[in-house]
C-alpha cells in the first residue's frame, strides 16, 4: 500500500470523527461513499484500522479513543494542535477541489494576489541551516524596492498573509517581511549564530503582525451587537478572547493584548457593530478615528 493511500485514509478517518463519534462499521460505510474508496484502498480491516489509530497519533498528533460501552471511536477533545488542524483543513480543501472537477463551477475562490508561499520551503531551509538570505523587497507604503540581507528566524501567518521574521543586517533590527513582496531570493553560504528570539512569545499578546514592542498588554472589553457577536463567538478575534456577558442586545468579550495598529484597524472594520468599553484610551482613539472618517464625508 502506498504512502499516499495511507495518508489519505488517515485524513478521511480524522475528518469523519471530527463530525461525531462512530463505530468501525459506520466509518467503513461513510468511507465507502468516497468515489476513490476502492482505487485508493480506503476500506480496511479492523486490524489495519487499529494500526491506523496508532499511526495517526504518531504522525498527526491526534489521539483517537474508543468508548467500549457505546462501541464507538472519537477524537479526544482539545488534542488537535494548530499544525495538525491546518494540515487536515488543507487536505479537506484539496479533496474538495478534486471532487469538484466535472461538477461545474461549484467552488468559488477569492481573487487575490499570490501569497509568496512558493518561497516557504527555501526560507524554512535557510532558517534550519542558519544561512543568511538576500532578496529585493518592495515596501507597502511607497512601492519602492530595496536590497536586503537578512538572518531568517521564523515564518508567521497574519490576516491571510505570510511573513518572514528576521534580523536585517542593515541595522541589526528584527523585522517582518511579507512573502508576497520578496523577489530575487538567494540563500547564501554565509552562516550566522543562533538568535535568541522567541517568536511565539514575541507575538503572544499581539494581534496580527505588529508586535508592539513599546506597547503594554491591556485588558480590552468590546461590546458587539448580538448578530455580529455570535459571529465573533464562533470565530474569535484573538486566542485570549473570553465571553464575559450576553444579553438580548449585545455580547461582550474581554481580551488581553497590546492595542497595536493592527488591532485598531480590526475594531474599526466592524463599524457600528462594536463599541469599545475599556480601556478609555483605546475608546478615545477609536472615537477620534471615527470622527475623522465622518469628517471626510462632509
TrEMBL record:
Any Pfam family the entry gives: WCX
Ranges of residues in domain WYL: 121-185
Top-level taxonomy: Bacteria, Pseudomonadati, Bacteroidota, Flavobacteriia, Flavobacteriales
Residue span(s) of domain WCX: 219-293
PROSITE patterns: WYL
Top-level taxon: Bacteria
UniProt-recorded name of the protein: Helix-turn-helix transcriptional regulator
Amino acid at each position: 500500500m502506498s504512502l499516499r493511500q495511507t495518508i489519505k485514509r488517515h485524513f478521511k478517518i480524522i475528518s469523519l470523527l471530527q463530525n461525531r463519534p462512530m463505530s468501525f462499521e459506520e466509518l467503513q460505510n461513510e468511507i465507502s461513499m468516497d468515489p476513490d474508496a476502492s482505487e485508493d484502498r480506503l476500506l480496511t480491516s479492523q486490524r489495519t484500522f487499529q494500526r491506523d489509530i496508532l499511526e495517526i497519533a504518531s504522525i498527526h498528533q491526534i489521539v483517537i479513543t474508543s468508548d467500549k460501552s457505546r462501541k464507538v471511536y472519537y477524537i479526544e477533545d482539545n488534542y488537535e494542535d494548530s499544525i495538525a488542524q491546518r494540515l487536515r483543513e488543507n487536505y479537506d480543501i484539496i479533496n474538495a477541489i478534486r471532487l469538484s472537477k466535472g461538477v461545474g463551477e461549484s467552488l468559488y475562490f477569492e481573487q487575490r494576489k499570490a501569497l509568496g508561499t512558493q518561497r516557504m520551503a527555501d526560507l524554512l531551509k535557510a532558517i534550519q541551516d542558519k544561512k543568511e538570505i538576500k532578496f529585493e523587497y518592495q515596501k507597502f507604503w511607497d512601492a519602492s524596492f530595496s536590497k536586503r540581507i537578512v538572518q531568517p528566524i521564523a515564518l508567521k501567518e497574519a490576516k491571510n498573509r505570510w511573513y518572514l521574521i528576521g534580523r536585517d543586517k542593515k541595522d541589526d533590527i528584527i523585522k517582518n517581511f511579507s512573502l508576497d513582496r520578496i523577489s530575487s531570493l538567494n540563500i547564501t553560504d554565509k552562516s550566522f549564530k543562533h538568535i535568541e528570539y522567541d517568536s511565539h512569545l514575541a507575538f503572544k499578546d499581539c494581534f496580527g503582525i505588529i508586535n508592539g514592542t513599546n506597547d503594554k498588554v491591556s485588558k480590552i472589553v468590546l461590546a458587539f451587537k448580538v448578530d455580529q457577536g455570535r459571529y465573533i463567538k464562533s470565530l474569535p478575534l484573538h486566542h485570549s478572547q473570553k465571553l464575559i456577558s450576553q444579553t438580548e442586545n449585545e455580547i461582550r468579550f474581554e481580551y488581553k493584548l497590546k492595542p497595536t495598529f493592527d488591532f485598531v484597524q480590526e475594531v474599526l472594520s466592524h463599524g457600528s457593530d462594536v463599541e469599545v468599553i475599556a480601556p478609555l484610551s483605546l475608546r478615545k482613539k477609536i472615537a477620534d478615528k471615527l470622527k475623522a472618517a465622518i469628517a471626510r464625508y462632509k
